[in-house]
Amino acid sequence: GSVDLSGYCLGNGGSDYTSSTVQLSGTVAAGATFVVGGPNANALNGNPAFDQSVNFAPDFQNSGSTADGVALFDVPCTSVTSSTVPLDAVIYGTTNSNNLMDESGSAGTPDVGDAPAGDTIERTSAAGAWQIQGVPSPGVAAF
Predict the structure, then answer these.
(1) What CA–CA distance (Å, rounded) separates 58 from 68?
(2) Rg of the chain taking only CA atoms, in angstroms
C-alpha cells in the first residue's frame, strides 16, 4: 500500500544523525520511489524530479578519514535524538570511529566508501548493499 511520510525523518551527520534533519512529507505510492534532495536539479545530480525539495543545512558531507551517515527514522524529527535508533541507515567512509549507529542500535561498519566529488552512492539491493556511482540515477530502482 501507499506510505504517508509525515511520521518519518531523515537525519545526517558524523557523530550522530542530528547535524541536519528533514521532516518528510507526501505519500509514496505502492511500488514507487520517492526522491528527496535539492534544492537544485541539474546534469551533475542526474536531473531528478524531486518529490520533496529541501536545502539540507548543513549539507551532507564527504566523510574524509571518519565515516558519516544518513538515516531514516520512523518518528517525526522533533523526536530524533542522538540515541534514536534509525529504521534504516547508510554509513559511508573509511572508519566509523565516531560510532555512528546502524539499524541494530550499535555502532555500524561503513556500508560503502567515501564517494569522490561529483559521484554519489546508491543502494543496490533490498538487503542494504551499496556502491559508489559516477552517474547519478535518482528514482531508478537498482534492485
Answers:
(1) 13
(2) 14
pLDDT digits (tens, 9 = 90+) for 88-122: 999 999 899 999 999 999 999 999 998 887 778 88
Measured from the Cβ of residue 95, the count of other Cβ atoms closer than 10 Å reads: 11
* One-character DSSP codes across the chain: --EEGGG-EEEEESSSTTSEEEE--SEE-TT----EE-S---GGGT----SEE---SSPP---TTS-EEEEEESS-GGG--TTPPPSEEEEESS--TT--B-TTSSBPPPSB-PPPTT-EEEE-STT--EEEESS--TT----
pLDDT in tens, 66-93: 899 999 999 999 999 999 999 999 999 9
**Measured torsion, CA atoms of residues 37, 70, 34, 79, in degrees rounded to the nearest 10:** -100
